[in-house]
Amino acid sequence: MNARRGRLVAPRAALVGAALTLLLTACAPEGAVQPAPSATASKPAPDDETPSPGSFDPDASVEENLRFFDHVNRQSIGDDSIPGGQVVIDGLRAHGLGVEVLEVTPDTTPDGHRADAVQFAARLGDRCLLGQVSEQGYSSAVAPVLAGGNCLVGVTRAIDW
């Protein structure tokens, strides 16, 4: 009986493999798949809508403060793809934000390697300005403050320098 069962398993496996291949091929788009362009870190061109350096305005809208947050962070980051959290936090502090509203993730992994990305945040009332810098560039967003009162999830480092 084992010999007969072995003879049935091989054709079934081949049939399942062929069906799976056909299914996956049928789901693929026609023609060659073009890879998506990769994001690169670059300096933004001067723009009349970019606020000039100054300080954050607690009375301004979150969107206005986000534009300024982006401006300050892009200046701080410069040409360095991952400058480290201290550079970004120092830039935000120099433009009026105190350490009590700032958060930043570690620059290194638990085993001592350089982090692939650094996240940072500024808490403005019940909203958070979130930023991230990585090899792919800088990005930002606005999100509500988390239930625990923080902006970032996970491990953050003390801003004690």
Automatic annotation (TrEMBL):
It comes from Ruicaihuangia caeni. Residues 35-44 have a biased composition (Low complexity). Residues 74-154 form the DUF6993 domain. Residues 1-28 form the signal peptide. This is DUF6993 domain-containing protein. Keywords: Signal. Residues 33-61 are annotated as: Disordered. InterPro entries: DUF6993. It comes from the Bacteria. Pfam families: DUF6993.
